[in-house]
Amino acid sequence: MSSKNTKPKKEKVDEEITPYLDQELRPSTWHDYIGQKAIKNNLNILLKAASGRGTPPEHVLFYGPPGLGKTTLAHLVARETGKNLKITSGPAIERVGDLASILTNLASGDILFIDEIHRLNKTIEEVLYPAMESGVLDIIIGKGPSARTIQLELPPFTLLAATTRVAMISSPLRSRFSGGVFRLEFYSEDEIEEILRRSAKILKVNLEAGAEKEIAKRSRFTPRTANYFLKRARDFAQVENRALDRKAVTEALKLLGVDEKGLTPSDRKLLEVIADKFNGGPVGLGTLAAALSEEEATIEEFNEPYLLQLGLIERTTRGRALTPHAYTHLGKTPPKNMQKKLL
Ligand code: ADE
Fold it and tell me: How far is CA 86 from the centre of its chain?
């Protein structure tokens, strides 16, 4: 390239919008938080009652598929109580000392959020029990016969934790969430549309009538996915210099390999493998993961919840099986024993 005429073009930058779009889209007040009504109502009572008594709220566990707003809820609880939020995660707490340091550095009333709590190892989990139950930290000093335990009193705190794998939470840990164990539900299409209209306003994009419907239909009933698609469709319309209407959304998402039900190439591959290699199933998770060269956890966390929600697969005691709807969606003929069910 010649050095002439290479003066950089001045980019038009919107000073108010940072590159941290996901953070910008996260609702910062209960009023802005759309959906999950049952959890909102229960949390409100828990928080109001605790505040009325002048004590920190009891510990709460949120669970459910990724992208439904578990971390957002933790931010809102902290905001509502006017306390500091300290954020960490199961894999970040590698040693008992890491947890001891986090707990002893809390101030009275702080909210501690542990994301992916199912990835906490057993020894660390056991240190958490007395901390959650009686506000004390038991530390073992020394080894062998001379080992002794000292007990440190912790400032009162509230533990909020989140997991996408509630079955991996041991029952002693689960039972210590005395404030409640709440399951986040998939959002309705109407709620997703409302979230998209709010996000479009924040991003200053002009979503033409009906465009939010096209995104919502494919959003897997998940705000994170809906917002991701909105951003990609916005990029597409901008680069193609056209309006962000239904057609632009459809084209942009097709380019990403997302079909009209919101299935990604990896979801379709999973369905096709069960259909073609395992005659529709049932097939065990380990066998399926091996056939797809995928991690079992990825299938369980990312693919299955939505495929189950849509009724495209079912979980039986012998493994995963396709439903007749899955064959219809793939445009394949179901095996003979299933054809009757389709009639
Ligand atoms: N953005 C992501 N999740 C949201 C929610 N539940 N309500 C409003 N905006 C959101």
Answer: 19
